[in-house]
Amino acid sequence: MTERPTSARSVQKGGRQLLQMATNRRVNAKENDAPAGSNQSNTTEHDSKNSTFNWSTGIANTKATSVDVNGVVEEKYNDSNSTPLKNLVFKQLDKSPIEVHVRCVFMRVGDIDTLNERYYAEILFEASWEEPRLKGTPKEPFNAGINWTPQLELLNGIGELNDNIAYSVFYDRQGLATVTEHHKLKGTLWERMELQYFPFDLQDLSLSVTTSRSGKEMFFVKNLRKPSGANCRVFTDEQEWYLFEHVDIETKEEIEEYLDDGHNHSVVICSCHAARKYGYYIWNAYFLIFLITSASFTTFPIPLTNISGRVQISCTLLLTSITFRWLCDKALPTISYLTAVDVYAIGSIFSLCLLNIYNGVIGYVYYYISTNTTNSATTVNVHSIIIIDRWALVVYTILFFVYQFGTLAWMYLVPWKERRNMFRMDKINRIAFAPKYDSRRATFMDILRSTTVKRKVAPTVPTITEVDQS
């Protein structure tokens, strides 16, 4: 049986994974986007091989040492009984919290498992902050062992996670340093699937990251200088899902239950959006249920003298609908609410139940009148029952088609409206970062490459606000 998290709480709170590792690091420093080998640029690289890890609260005391190409020795300690060296050497000179600008790019998304509520992703996550202590020191490499870092932790990881970490330092014309911590994550992430509108559902595939630092030290904000998005060209579930390009970044503060400091900790949730392709379910669920229910009209032409034939057909259709619904439920997790296809199927089953009740009542009345009245009265009463039966056919037909058209109207006004909003957000996202790509043919990766080329020419990129003001 496939492993499945016991609950959302156990994954989000108990499965925390530390993204700040002592090894597997690369450090880059540059000034005004100067080319490699320039006197104003110094680049220090450390081995960046892929590594897997699974962090837990019961980790033992460890010590790791890494040497860069210049012979500088960096020592890092992870000791639960001692204070980290970087907290002793570098403390904030002021009390204002540090703004950490985050950016998230979903490079690859796939294996969206609705039943076990998880998905696989390869994500580029960047956290940038200004470092005043590095002002005017472009030749000095950034040392993550003694300098300030945000100490990121993953909340919704499942099992082992592959993480590559790199640091880059960018110096502007005034010599101010901006440090960026790059994470390339590969692994399976947990996500609560919202299935009220199944099979027209729209899922948020999120990456939840927090920090061990309190809200008084730092807080997350969305990076408006660099675009966030999802790569739709490399999407392994393209046959079942449609992946939108834009990524929503939400920041909030929470109190960690396992910490007794009583402080809020900043949390950032980066979400891309995937819409299920519902064509398979339209033909294999809705259309088949429609055919089974519409077959109930064949009971009305059967004469009332053969009421047993009517009841037999309607009961067979009822049992067929119930069996078909159980087959459809095998593709969904056990949830305590009804999905859109459940409501449609149960409505059809309910109409067949009403038809069975009607056939039983009209058959009993016809039999009672036929056997307990005189010949003249029987003819009049039987004719009246036949007229009632024909009006019942008219009422049943009207209710049947009202239910079908009501279902179509609800689909257009509720779940399909969310999809239209997603397409609109994709277009707004493209226009905001690349006005010349005001076309459906342009993808997020085209905009990303164009933005990268522009940054090689210009030392800074204006924000959206600055563009509007100009």
TrEMBL record:
<dbReference type="Pfam" id="PF02931">
    <property type="entry name" value="Neur_chan_LBD"/>
</dbReference>
<dbReference type="GO" id="GO:0005230">
    <property type="term" value="F:extracellular ligand-gated monoatomic ion channel activity"/>
</dbReference>
<dbReference type="GO" id="GO:0004888">
    <property type="term" value="F:transmembrane signaling receptor activity"/>
</dbReference>
<dbReference type="InterPro" id="IPR038050">
    <property type="entry name" value="Neuro_actylchol_rec"/>
</dbReference>
<keyword id="KW-1133">Transmembrane helix</keyword>
<feature type="transmembrane region" description="Helical">
    <location>
        <begin position="335"/>
        <end position="358"/>
    </location>
</feature>
<keyword id="KW-0472">Membrane</keyword>
<protein>
    <recommendedName>
        <fullName>Neurotransmitter-gated ion-channel ligand-binding domain-containing protein</fullName>
    </recommendedName>
</protein>
<feature type="domain" description="Neurotransmitter-gated ion-channel ligand-binding">
    <location>
        <begin position="94"/>
        <end position="258"/>
    </location>
</feature>
<dbReference type="InterPro" id="IPR006202">
    <property type="entry name" value="Neur_chan_lig-bd"/>
</dbReference>
<feature type="region of interest" description="Disordered">
    <location>
        <begin position="1"/>
        <end position="55"/>
    </location>
</feature>
<feature type="transmembrane region" description="Helical">
    <location>
        <begin position="391"/>
        <end position="414"/>
    </location>
</feature>
<keyword id="KW-0812">Transmembrane</keyword>
<dbReference type="InterPro" id="IPR006201">
    <property type="entry name" value="Neur_channel"/>
</dbReference>
<dbReference type="GO" id="GO:0016020">
    <property type="term" value="C:membrane"/>
</dbReference>
<feature type="compositionally biased region" description="Polar residues">
    <location>
        <begin position="1"/>
        <end position="10"/>
    </location>
</feature>
<dbReference type="InterPro" id="IPR036719">
    <property type="entry name" value="Neuro-gated_channel_TM_sf"/>
</dbReference>
<dbReference type="InterPro" id="IPR036734">
    <property type="entry name" value="Neur_chan_lig-bd_sf"/>
</dbReference>
<feature type="transmembrane region" description="Helical">
    <location>
        <begin position="285"/>
        <end position="304"/>
    </location>
</feature>
